[in-house]
Amino acid sequence: MDNILLSARDLSVRFGGVLAVNQVSFDVRRGEVFTLIGPNGAGKTTVFNLISRIYTPTTGSISYTGPQGQVLLTQQAPHTVAGLGIARTFQNIELFEHASVLHNLLIGRHTRRETGLWSDMLFTSRVRSAEMRARHKAEEVIEFLDLQHYRDTLVAGLPYGVRKVVELGRALCTEPELLLLDEPSSGLNTEETDDMAFWIQDIRQDLGITVLMVEHDMSLVSKVSDRVLAMNQGEVVALGTPQEVQAHPRVIEAYLGSIDDVSNLRRPAGSAPARTAA
């Protein structure tokens, strides 16, 4: 289909005797927010690492149709992925703490580099023009994410929630077709999570960027996701809208246990909690 940006087929990954991902297949459509959910150890981040080429699948393939046409990601070197139009944030923030917000965002422009080493050393007019374009793009992202107040502040002095937004901004500076967000609400309070939902919606609607997300916060998932893929123990459990997936019996079981387990947690009507000895 023309609207499929990324397609994963029969992905499996084995680490020694552990089958971390088992025959996982899904498609990500252009312009949607597609979210992977599941309990800890379900294999979500492993799938992300396959797309980023940090891992190589034991079996299966991932195709991606970006600006250069369709390519097999499983045949690409890890350092080429960003240049294909795929950017990523990490659950544990990966920023240069002793550089300013602006400089961290400019680092995100490395995939758009237009000049070579010798011209950079001589700082030719072409290099100066490229530098101006890079700074213009970084300033656009700063304005888009309301980071003007922190523009020249060192990352080391920023609150955690702002750092999360800066990392998001650095990814946007690569001008990606596909943005991978690894638990964007991790470590954020309720207000900051609401702001993150706002940014994700604007990234999709205003910038036209497709978002593939791993997330635990189901309120965020429900607010921003078009489709959700639920995983458990490395396998696909359910695929559909957030409402459909959250109501799926196997998803409920993966998070809460079997129906019998949940029933055993309920107290009979009118019964009082048992008292414990002092």
Automatic annotation (TrEMBL):
Keywords: ATP-binding, Cell membrane, Membrane, Nucleotide-binding, Transport. The keyword Iron-sulfur does not apply. InterPro entries: AAA+_ATPase, ABC_AA/LPS_Transport, ABC_transporter-like_ATP-bd, BCA_ABC_TP_C, P-loop_NTPase. GO terms for molecular function: ATP binding. Residues 6-258 form the ABC transporter domain. CDD domains: ABC_Mj1267_LivG_branched (cd03219). Pfam families: ABC_tran, BCA_ABC_TP_C. It comes from the Bacteria. The keyword Calcium does not apply. PANTHER family: ABC TRANSPORTER ATP-BINDING PROTEIN (PTHR45772:SF1), CONSERVED COMPONENT OF ABC TRANSPORTER FOR NATURAL AMINO ACIDS-RELATED (PTHR45772). This is ABC transporter ATP-binding protein. It comes from Polaromonas aquatica.
